[in-house]
Amino acid sequence: MRMSQLSAESGVAIATIKYYLREGLLHQGEQVAATRAEYDESHLRRLRLIRALLEVGRLPITSIKKVIEAVDDETLPVHYMLGTAHYAISPVVEAGEGEEWAAAREQADRMIDDLGWQVSRNAPGRDELAQTLVKLRQLGLETDLTPYAQAAHQLVTEVELDTIPLDGPRDAAVEALVLGTVLYGRAFDALRRLAQESESARRLKVSPPGPGDA
Amino acid sequence: MRMSQLSAESGVAIATIKYYLREGLLHQGEQVAATRAEYDESHLRRLRLIRALLEVGRLPITSIKKVIEAVDDETLPVHYMLGTAHYAISPVVEAGEGEEWAAAREQADRMIDDLGWQVSRNAPGRDELAQTLVKLRQLGLETDLTPYAQAAHQLVTEVELDTIPLDGPRDAAVEALVLGTVLYGRAFDALRRLAQESESARRLKVSPPGPGDA
Questions:
Q1: pLDDT tens digits, residue range A100-149?
Q2: CB–CB of A53/A44 below 8 Å?
Q3: How many independent structural domains does chain B possess?
Q4: Which of A6, A32, A103, B23 has the fewest CB atoms inside 10 Å of its own CB, making it the most exposed?
Q5: Has residue B102 been placed in a domain?
Q6: Min CA distance, B35 vs chain A (Å)?
Q7: Chain B contacts of A190, Cβ < 8 Å?
Q8: Which Pfam families match (chains A, B) (predicted)?
Q9: Cα–Cα dist A57/B69, whole Å
């Protein structure tokens, strides 16, 4: 297809497509004449991935470049390619210092080991978990997160990983990982708040709201 | 206790305590002499609540005022007091327009009804869920969120609501709701990412990383 059709099918403006081509985020089309290049499905898939990283992952262009490099490096195993995208969309947490931090990080690491999870020592989730544990401890709140870990494990193994096509095109796998991580996370957060309200109403014996919610 | 001791025990600077007194966020102490007021446990609890709303809930002072008003209004049932805080810390989602939005909001409402949840028609979680459903549909992703709803329901009924003291001081209940909603949500998010990495490693048969994570 021509660039105009690629733009129409992807919903990405021609000027933007040209920018992605210049930045090397999108691979060049096949030059079929001096002023004409042909684009195909692989270009559509790449544009979908870039939009997912940009609009849902909210990544800056420099981070998108790193993810695209991992996608394009066919010698990089799929697991590490997915990890590059996964780490890029993770919240940035600075590792802390001092005994309190060390104890929390150790608790996070021990929990992951006890669960038998296979996770890199450098996974940003470890520091994210440690930071939350520090805060929970300081506030005197329960720090046994086992029920949360079990719920997360069940959702991931029974539902989430099945939504990622591990055998197909590399772009599609990364796109599914990013969209799923962000959007199902957002959905879970909303559902958890709704469930809290419902359970509060049940325990405090609030009569069901009427149609006008008086 | 004197204000200096209130400051020491709460970790809140005297100038900040005076600001909260002026703004009406903190109730006045008992005037025991012309230049001296006595503060008690209720002031400590209130300062804990303000800090929770400010530092963990990340609420602006105007929103904190509204939550404090709900706490101070003893005629407001506990469920609605908790709801005021809960809605204040929820992400702001603008209700959308058009058929696509209406269909998503209807799907969200139907799901909540099917689950038998008792949730106000005005709960911000409904629009949050609808917005996520619109995005999932546009991207051609699975919109059956039942497994997420079930996991959320289980965590909330078996763990989360038990951490909220519904019979004690009103400040303490709101504080526990805010801290629990935000911090356990953050913990779950980190755990979900870690579980994803682990399951990806398992499915893609990556050998366990060594101590140096080579």
A1: 999 999 999 999 999 999 999 999 999 999 999 999 998 888 889 999 99
A2: no
A3: 1
A4: A32
A5: no
A6: 33
A7: 125, 128-129, 132
A8: MerR_1
A9: 37
